[in-house]
Amino acid sequence: xxxxxxxxKKLRDATGAGMMECKAALTDANGDFEEANTILxxxxxxxxxxxxxxxxxxxxxxxxxxxxxxxxxLVEVNCESDFVARTDDFQALVQDIMTAxxxxxxxxxxGWITDPNGPVVALLKPVIGKLGENMAxxxxxxxxxxxxxxxxxxxxxxxxxxxxxxxxxxDVATRDEFTTLVKEIAMQVAxxxxxYVSRAAVPADVVDKERAIYRAQMEHSGKPAxxxxxxxxxxxxxxxSQVVLVDQASIRDPKVSVxxxxxxxxxxxxxxISVSRFARLRVGEAAQ
Length: 288
Known about the structure:
Layout: H1 5-15, H2 19-28, H3 33-50, E1 58-65, E2 71-79, H4 82-85, H5 88-104, H6 110-113, H7 119-131, E3 136-144, E4 148-153, E5 159-166, H8 170-173, H9 176-192, H10 204-217, H11 225-243, H12 258-269, E6 274-282
């Protein structure tokens, strides 16, 4: 039967698929619109499977923050090209995924978000079929109900940071000094990429491994044991200053540590403010 341009346009408007794909689907369905729609959906899922091995190193970090800062969500959503990441369809997908995370609540986790039979993968499939690129949502960070949550999204949406603060009273939360502190700490995490909040959070096996490396470096130095111990402690201190947030030099003033920044802010605010946890998501890192 004859497939008209109007038929193709109608199917394209309904599915978002390309003109040639719509025409082929209508031909295969003998002009039956619903059957053609089904064919396109099936082909969209098939194409998603074919693209599953392609690199998803572009994308966006989606963010959502509760108005009272009692909770927040960061999610990494990947695609193959920056062009697709800027489309309305992809950005709508990011919002839909964050809504699914909100709905899941405490059940939302990295395992949940990557579940092949889960709601997020179901959201990805039709957009993969429509935009023609492989996509993935490999990880998320969701904080809720345990402290004051602040966020920082770097220009372009490729890097997102979420920080949870403890000791924040309703009065403190409204103070300009505290708002400035939240932004400074979040930008610190973005710029310096710490791995742990405090020294106590560093796993013992990681510390033991570092100590063993430093001792091995000094093995044939001929120095007395007590001197080696001091050198090892010094090297360990340098290690902490790189990977522990509160031990890092402040990006605002390298002469002071983040711990000193927090102490000064706590004194000014009349409350003991601390960082309980943080998350730093950069597009593409999860695939590396």
